[in-house]
Amino acid sequence: MAATANSSEINRKAAVAANPAPGARKTEAGAKHDISSVVMVEVPQGFSFTQAACSYGYFVVPPNLWQRCESGPGLSDSGTFNRPLRFGERLVNTARCTISLVPACGQVSNPKQGSGGDQQAMALRVDVVSAEALTESDQEDIRAQVVRMFQTTIDLAPWFRLHPEAKKRGYGRLFRSPTVFEDMVKSITGCNMKFGGTIRMNKLLCEEFGRSGAFPTPEDLENVQEEDLKEKAKVGYRAGRILRLAESFRDGSVDPAWLEAPERTREEVLKFVKALYGFGDYAAGNVAMLLGFYEDIPMDSETVRHFKDYHGVTTKNVKEVAPRVKKEYEKYAPYQFLQYWYEMITWHEKKRGLEVHLWNASEFSF
């Protein structure tokens, strides 16, 4: 996980600028009034918003912005998540969205999972500000993206049986992007780059090529020249890879529905993604992990450092550490990465004396 160098106050001001309060009005002469609406998203019993949001580094990568709540009574699962989301045919429209966890108040029917007695049913509230009124189809576009980001529909019961502490914490829903395309682009920008550089590239992609600061779609990149993308988004050699990927989404050779189909296997996903231009083992593995395949642990310097800090392994040789990594996590199969990342988060929480959702943005760096 990694981060920007912004302070909490800068985060607060950026969120206000990017996501004005619902009902905010445009000030240009003759401009249409913004329209505010609310979309509710069901969550299962025991759902933790902070654990679903602050669970993987992408939640601090633009256009995502997490606003922490200071610790205090009733704030253990509090915070707001802000970003623009796309909607409409081919996602051509953009809305500013602020997401928070609220009592369901009868607005949604909470799924019955496990035992919870008379526990208050909760829901995700999405405050949407857009230039036009949302149709039912538009609301479904936004709802589906929120479900994907926070993985509200996955069944964590098998994982929780393996890891009672994770169940108590509510950990297991790794944050991901609202679309497969965004996850794949961010996987490209994460290769051979410090996390601060990944953040900078994605910030520029949104500012220079997205609509109203949203993440660009494949269609947004259709007429972009490689040199222009290199210059404006500072992505270097990755420009050709990003544009080739966008073209593959446009012509249908990459079908997100196929990749996300429940019958798809890890082997099929890895084989397909590795065949795409610019996707090596690391990027393809990250894409597969974000599609729900948690068997693999990335063997890099970060994993070696973790095994030194957490498990007391002294060797710095990746090949020597690899067998120990495999043995350590095999009892958690097929959730090896969830355990690895659980250790990473809790280790750094202990070092810093704060739960992950209370860190400043600058502290999201392992």
Automatic annotation (TrEMBL):
Using the record's annotation, list all stretches that form the HhH-GPD domain: 189-351
What biological processes does GO assign it?
A: base-excision repair, AP site formation
Family that this chain belongs to: Belongs to the type-1 OGG1 family.
**What is catalysed by this protein?**
2'-deoxyribonucleotide-(2'-deoxyribose 5'-phosphate)-2'-deoxyribonucleotide-DNA = a 3'-end 2'-deoxyribonucleotide-(2,3-dehydro-2,3-deoxyribose 5'-phosphate)-DNA + a 5'-end 5'-phospho-2'-deoxyribonucleoside-DNA + H(+)
Q: What EC number(s) does the entry state?
A: 4.2.99.18
Supply the name of the protein.
DNA-(apurinic or apyrimidinic site) lyase
Organism for this UniProt entry: Ectocarpus siliculosus
Please give the Gene Ontology molecular function terms for this protein.
8-oxo-7,8-dihydroguanine DNA N-glycosylase activity; class I DNA-(apurinic or apyrimidinic site) endonuclease activity
